[in-house]
Amino acid sequence: MSTARHNPLNSVAAHTALIAYTLIALFPVFVIVINSFKERRAIFREPLALPDAESFSLIGYQTVMKQGNFFLYFQNSFIVTVASLFFILLFGAMAAFALAEYRFRGNMLMGLYLALGIMIPIRIGTVAILQMMVSTGLVNTLWALILVYTAQGLPLAVFILSEFMRQVSDDLKNAGRIDGLSEYKIFFRLVLPLVRPAMATVAVFNMIPIWNDLWFPLILAPAEEVKTLTLGSQVFIGQFVTDWNAVLSALSLAILPVLVLYVIFSRQLIRGITSGAVK
Amino acid sequence: MPGTAVSSHAPKIRWHIIVFLAPAVLVYTAVMILPLFDTLRLALYDEVEGERVFVGLENFRTLFGDANWSRQFWNALINNFWFFLIHMAVQNPIGIALAAILSNPRLRFSSFYRSAIFIPTILSFVIVGFAWKLILSPIWGIAPGMLDAIGLKSLFAPWLGREETALTTLALISVWQFVGIPMMLIYAALLSIPDEILEAGECDGVTGLSAFWKIKLPLILPSIGIISILTFVANFNAFDLIYAAQGALAGPDFSTDILGTFLYRTFFGFQLQLGDPHMGSAIASAMFAVILIGVCLYLFGIQTRIRRYQL
């Protein structure tokens, strides 16, 4: 072992670089959140100071609560995200099982067909998607968003889950067959519980882009009662652009749910990425 | 649930396979693949006196031939390439450098750093766009104030408001947001390098930085390739950040217009111009072509070559 690898100077340099970049990454979030708790004059006079007894104010949050439908937006985002994840995982796992478990003609082709969507963004088809949603009456409903996000998430889900399902032991499944379990029971009772970690990875990968998407809510569901939190805060901020207290509070409120989700799921997310699930 | 469907060897239809595949294939085909081809088809139509008529390549002739349209299209495409180049030149080196530092097994608090640096990636474009707009705003004065503190106040300019700097500033904001992704992927790739290889290098006196350049970097080239193509696809269908920070007009004076905002404006209309689904489809088809060319270049040009180096 050489000395170069544990030179104390190196480790000081490494920590300095990492702390510097961590500050760059967190600074904007920090500034937004602390200023959302200050009164208007203090925001401009000392933007970097923490709120103290004198400058503390919740006026921005009061405006947001009075003027915006943030609870409704939050509820919409929540329904869309959870429902999309449910369908992505259920349909994705079923298709992945069929591709991983059975030999049939066209298996390879079907896998390739489903994998196409990994590289081609669904946004390219927006014009026709909107027409379809208008003609089926789904425009301005949460179903439009759920369908689009399910279709968007399926390709990667099938790809990742089928990799994992190939590793489930054949002996186990054959034992189930000898015991007279149907193929459906083998899938739901034996295989699904074993691939739960992979399902969690897929869920976490899909959750953040769905929650944060602006394009499809803007195009498919812009009506007030179906606005998602991302679109709702965008519109709200656009209307209140000169009311800095309200804008900063709305931004902080939009940051909060994602941050909570991240704190809960960050381990899963990081483990998912680093285990090479996206290769 | 039928309990009798035991896998049979007879050439009869195995219904369970169809049942397992059907939901995913139906949703994927109906909501993704068919609309994609329908959009390509719509690009060949136009609306004349309230009726949809087939016009062949007329829309593309307008897009590339008409002075007004082609100026906007090439402006958006060139801006989009600049946006992508900044990501490649800034985001990926920073991501690789952070990953290289983090992958040192003796480093303490590395999971804290990883989680913290990844936070911007989980925020929505709306938050990121507005937060940076406020911070860079000359009215609020956080950016000029901070530059003043290190004696560089003269460098400050309303970067987002100037035509020459707005696009680069937005690209850097996007880099700030997404640097976590290359960092994580490269970190994973670095961890998967077997210790024996590094120790063999040490025996030959290859350590520290030269070990990084001579051993680790060649081994993580495939991951860098994957990151590049992911960045390419994401950049060429980007829209949200520009829309949140600069609006659908991609101001000032279209200097931050990229293909996504151009598609949105054309398809939906803005101010006095009415939305045009057929021209919108033509632009979407052009985006499809650009992305397809990029992906094919990667698959057939870069990926195969990288594999050969690895052997």
UniProtKB/TrEMBL annotation, chain A:
<keyword id="KW-1003">Cell membrane</keyword>
<feature type="domain" description="ABC transmembrane type-1">
    <location>
        <begin position="74"/>
        <end position="265"/>
    </location>
</feature>
<feature type="transmembrane region" description="Helical">
    <location>
        <begin position="142"/>
        <end position="165"/>
    </location>
</feature>
<feature type="transmembrane region" description="Helical">
    <location>
        <begin position="186"/>
        <end position="208"/>
    </location>
</feature>
<comment type="similarity">
    <text>Belongs to the binding-protein-dependent transport system permease family.</text>
</comment>
<feature type="transmembrane region" description="Helical">
    <location>
        <begin position="246"/>
        <end position="265"/>
    </location>
</feature>
<dbReference type="GO" id="GO:0055085">
    <property type="term" value="P:transmembrane transport"/>
</dbReference>
<keyword id="KW-0812">Transmembrane</keyword>
<dbReference type="InterPro" id="IPR035906">
    <property type="entry name" value="MetI-like_sf"/>
</dbReference>
<protein>
    <submittedName>
        <fullName>Carbohydrate ABC transporter permease</fullName>
    </submittedName>
</protein>
<dbReference type="GO" id="GO:0005886">
    <property type="term" value="C:plasma membrane"/>
</dbReference>
<dbReference type="Pfam" id="PF00528">
    <property type="entry name" value="BPD_transp_1"/>
</dbReference>
<feature type="transmembrane region" description="Helical">
    <location>
        <begin position="112"/>
        <end position="130"/>
    </location>
</feature>
<keyword id="KW-1133">Transmembrane helix</keyword>
<dbReference type="InterPro" id="IPR000515">
    <property type="entry name" value="MetI-like"/>
</dbReference>
<keyword id="KW-0472">Membrane</keyword>
<feature type="transmembrane region" description="Helical">
    <location>
        <begin position="12"/>
        <end position="34"/>
    </location>
</feature>
<feature type="transmembrane region" description="Helical">
    <location>
        <begin position="78"/>
        <end position="100"/>
    </location>
</feature>
<keyword id="KW-0813">Transport</keyword>
From TrEMBL, chain B:
<dbReference type="InterPro" id="IPR051393">
    <property type="entry name" value="ABC_transporter_permease"/>
</dbReference>
<feature type="transmembrane region" description="Helical">
    <location>
        <begin position="141"/>
        <end position="160"/>
    </location>
</feature>
<protein>
    <submittedName>
        <fullName>Sugar ABC transporter permease</fullName>
    </submittedName>
</protein>
<keyword id="KW-1003">Cell membrane</keyword>
<feature type="transmembrane region" description="Helical">
    <location>
        <begin position="219"/>
        <end position="242"/>
    </location>
</feature>
<dbReference type="InterPro" id="IPR035906">
    <property type="entry name" value="MetI-like_sf"/>
</dbReference>
<feature type="transmembrane region" description="Helical">
    <location>
        <begin position="17"/>
        <end position="37"/>
    </location>
</feature>
<feature type="transmembrane region" description="Helical">
    <location>
        <begin position="115"/>
        <end position="135"/>
    </location>
</feature>
<feature type="transmembrane region" description="Helical">
    <location>
        <begin position="81"/>
        <end position="103"/>
    </location>
</feature>
<feature type="transmembrane region" description="Helical">
    <location>
        <begin position="167"/>
        <end position="190"/>
    </location>
</feature>
<feature type="transmembrane region" description="Helical">
    <location>
        <begin position="280"/>
        <end position="300"/>
    </location>
</feature>
<dbReference type="GO" id="GO:0005886">
    <property type="term" value="C:plasma membrane"/>
</dbReference>
<feature type="domain" description="ABC transmembrane type-1">
    <location>
        <begin position="77"/>
        <end position="300"/>
    </location>
</feature>
<dbReference type="GO" id="GO:0055085">
    <property type="term" value="P:transmembrane transport"/>
</dbReference>
<comment type="similarity">
    <text>Belongs to the binding-protein-dependent transport system permease family.</text>
</comment>
<dbReference type="InterPro" id="IPR000515">
    <property type="entry name" value="MetI-like"/>
</dbReference>
<keyword id="KW-0813">Transport</keyword>
<keyword id="KW-0812">Transmembrane</keyword>
<keyword id="KW-0472">Membrane</keyword>
<keyword id="KW-1133">Transmembrane helix</keyword>
<dbReference type="Pfam" id="PF00528">
    <property type="entry name" value="BPD_transp_1"/>
</dbReference>
